[in-house]
């Protein structure tokens, strides 16, 4: 069983392909606040799963990672404020607020108590080990008597 993407706020990528024209990418890569959602890769091997999320420009303190009833949620909120010094006037000031939330349902084979994460070079990596009983067993030779 593999990780399943789940979101209360947006339809899944597959659902969006079915609802809209395949080549119409107008607003489907954006959240409800018109900010782009970070791209995600999910890898699986015999020892576990790894979620890679591309999120350049953030710091590890900007992320919030929660596991609640087998649902892994990765979210972030970042507000850029430019202080205005006394006596300063400006004709244009741009500020930004960006946030996202992505949720994934963990399979029963995942060891939720041992989830780990690290953020390096703009990539957040969340590692989710598999339970020992879910890992493949080596071939066992049976002696004939």
Overall description:
This protein is mainly beta and 145 residues long. 5% of the residues lie in helices and 37% in strands. The chain is built from 1 helix and 8 strands, in the order βαβββββββ. The chain has one helix at residues 13-19; strands at 4-6, 40-44, 48-54, 63-68, 71-80, 96-105, 116-120, 123-129. The strands form 2 sheets. Strands 1-6-5-4 form a 4-stranded antiparallel beta sheet, with no helix packed on it. It has a 4-stranded antiparallel beta sheet with strand order 2-3-8-7, with no helix packed on it. Strand 4 and strand 5 form a beta hairpin. The model is unreliable at 7-30 (pLDDT under 50).
Provide key terms for this protein.
145 residues; rod-shaped; 4-stranded antiparallel sheet; 37% strand; mainly beta
How would you classify the quaternary structure?
Answer: single chain
The 3D shape can be described as rod-shaped
Mean pLDDT, to the nearest integer, reads 77
> What proportion of the residues is helical, as a percent range?
under 10%
The succession of helices and strands, N to C, reads: EHEEEEEEE
The order of strands across the largest sheet is 1-6-5-4
Structural class: mainly beta
Q: What is the total tally of β strands?
A: 8
As residue ranges, the low-confidence spans are 7-30
Largest sheet, strands/sense/barrel: 4 strands, antiparallel
Radius of gyration: 21 Å
**Total DSSP helices:** 1
Write the layout of secondary structure elements.
Layout (H helix, E strand, L loop, with lengths): L3 E3 L6 H7 L20 E5 L3 E7 L8 E6 L2 E10 L15 E10 L10 E5 L2 E7 L16
Antiparallel strand pairs: 1-6, 2-3, 3-8, 4-5, 5-6, 7-8
């Amino acid at each position: 069983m593999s990780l399943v993407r789940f979101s209360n706020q947006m339809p899944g990528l597959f659902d969006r392909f079915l609802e809209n024209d395949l080549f119409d990418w107008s607003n489907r890569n954006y959240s409800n606040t018109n900010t782009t959602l970070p791209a995600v890769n999910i890898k699986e091997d015999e020892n576990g799963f790894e979620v890679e999320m591309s999120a350049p420009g953030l710091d590890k303190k900007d992320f919030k990672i929660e596991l609640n009833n087998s649902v892994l949620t990765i979210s972030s909120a970042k507000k850029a404020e430019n202080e205005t010094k006394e006596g300063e006037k400006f004709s244009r000031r741009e500020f930004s607020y960006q946030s996202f939330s992505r949720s994934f349902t963990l399979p029963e084979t995942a060891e939720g108590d041992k989830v780990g994460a690290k953020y390096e070079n703009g990539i957040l990596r969340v590692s989710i080990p598999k339970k020992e009983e879910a890992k493949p067993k080596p071939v066992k030779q049976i002696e004939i008597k």
